[in-house]
């Protein structure tokens, strides 16, 4: 196994190993990709305050997210098509998260189904819901998550309409991949990936195929999903979904203080400050730049998490110091999954925890609960000055 010192090490292995269409699916944003880039680069504007002569023995990264104990406040974000990044990807990522002691969130658009993941894990996981026009399907999906003993429902709010991602269109993204001349040429260079995929439990969307009438293969699935995201989703429908679930709810895709206030008013257990990893509204501000404004608006009323742009433990520390109680990694663990399967996801988590722990110590803190603005140097214009 190669020596992994940072997340970039995993990304380089991932790029070599995984077919181009699936690498591009993860490593891209919508339109010009401005928001995708700034999600990460804006973290670099924040500096850290070094402190010395502080007793650093007995440090801990342990915390809680929505009342659940976590080894560090970092959850695996919902990512579609993980079973195409590595054979049985969702099951392997979930197992790695369980063994490490952090939450795993299964996407509606996963390859392995809710039942597959439940069968291969013992710790409760979270389920992410995309709202579809087919209300009967959504109701049955929620019930399946209940039956699998999922401990939270993560409702994604920022994908009523699909943002355009140029690379996915040009690559003809599909699961399993359509065998065009260019796809075959690329797959011929990814033989280790291909051999593992031959033994995979599934190669199509496990939460959909076999659970929707008339959906039996990738061609019928593509037509169905293209029409199914619900553009009429509003706060009343969100409230109805929360009532239908009846358990802990996290609302993901909040990037505005007014929306954060509405989420808190509905009684959600947490919100995720997120712009879908820069894959929806290109030109929106990064999650980390919007976090202070949202904390000011609802920080005392609801638990606030942050997603989009995190590539290191230092990024985690900066988000926590600005007030977030939890964070999510998506691409960072997908790099590990695509590179080395379950071991790669574990490697990504180990890298982030070590960076978080070491940086926390050098900032003079012994546990994540002590982190705050006093640990940071934030530029005066970090949140931006915009005309009214």
Provide the descriptors you would attach to this structure in a database record.
388 residues, alpha/beta, TIM Barrel, two-stranded antiparallel ribbon, 43% helix, 11% strand
Description:
- The protein has 388 residues and is α/β, with parallel strands linked by helices.
- It has one domain (7-370): TIM Barrel (Alpha-Beta Barrel), CATH 3.20.20.
- It has helices spanning 7-17, 20-26, 34-41, 82-85, 89-100, 114-120, 135-147, 166-171, 181-187, 191-198, 218-228, 235-245, 257-266, 287-298, 313-321, 331-362, and strands spanning 47-48, 63-65, 68-70, 74-76, 105-106, 126-129, 152-156, 249-254, 270-273, 303-306, 326-329, 376-377.
- The strands form three sheets. It has an eight-stranded parallel beta sheet with strand order 4-11-10-9-8-7-6-5. A two-stranded antiparallel sheet has the order 1-12.
- Helix 14 (287-298) links the parallel strand 9 and strand 10 (303-306).
- Helix 1 runs antiparallel to helix 16 (331-362), helix 5 packs across helix 6 and helix 5 (89-100) packs parallel to helix 16.
- The longest helix has 32 residues, at 331-362.
- The relative contact order is 0.20.
- The mean pLDDT is 95.
């Amino acid at each position: 196994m190669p020596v992994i010192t940072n997340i970039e090490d995993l990304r380089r292995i991932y790029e070599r190993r995984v077919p181009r269409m699936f690498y591009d699916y993860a490593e891209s944003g919508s339109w010009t990709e401005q928001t995708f880039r700034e999600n990460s680069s804006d973290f670099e504007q924040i500096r850290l305050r070094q402190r010395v002569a502080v007793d650093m023995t007995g440090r801990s990264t342990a915390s809680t997210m929505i009342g659940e104990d976590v080894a560090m406040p970092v959850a695996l974000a919902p990512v579609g098509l993980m079973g195409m990044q590595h054979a049985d990807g969702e099951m392997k990522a979930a197992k790695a998260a369980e063994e490490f002691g952090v939450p795993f969130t299964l996407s509606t658009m996963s390859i392995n189904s809710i039942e597959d993941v439940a069968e291969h894990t013992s710790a409760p996981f979270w389920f992410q819901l995309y709202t579809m026009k087919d209300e009967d399907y959504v109701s049955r999906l929620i019930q399946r998550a209940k039956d699998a003993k999922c401990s939270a429902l993560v409702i994604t709010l920022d994908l009523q309409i699909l943002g355009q991602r140029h690379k996915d269109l040009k690559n003809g993204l599909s699961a399993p991949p359509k065998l065009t001349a260019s796809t075959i040429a690329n797959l011929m260079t990814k033989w280790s990936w291909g051999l593992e995929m031959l033994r995979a439990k599934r190669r199509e969307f496990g939460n959909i195929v076999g659970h929707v009438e008339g959906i039996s293969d990738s061609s019928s699935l593509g037509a169905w999903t293209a029409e199914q995201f619900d553009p009429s989703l509003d706060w009343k429908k969100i409230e109805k979904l929360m009532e239908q679930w009846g358990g802990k709810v996290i609302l993901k895709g909040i990037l505005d203080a007014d929306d954060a206030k509405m989420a808190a008013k509905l009684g959600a257990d947490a919100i995720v400050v997120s712009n879908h990893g820069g894959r929806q509204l290109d030109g929106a501000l990064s999650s980390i730049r919007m976090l202070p404004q949202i904390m000011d608006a609802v920080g005392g009323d609801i638990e606030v998490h942050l997603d989009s742009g995190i590539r290191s433990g230092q990024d985690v520390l900066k988000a926590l110091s600005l007030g977030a109680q939890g964070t999510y990694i998506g691409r960072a663990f997908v790099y590990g999954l695509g590179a080395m399967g379950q071991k790669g996801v574990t490697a990504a988590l180990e890298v982030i925890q070590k960076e978080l722990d070491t940086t926390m110590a050098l900032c003079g803190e012994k546990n994540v609960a002590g982190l705050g603005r006093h640990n940071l140097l934030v530029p005066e214009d970090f949140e931006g000055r915009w005309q009214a």
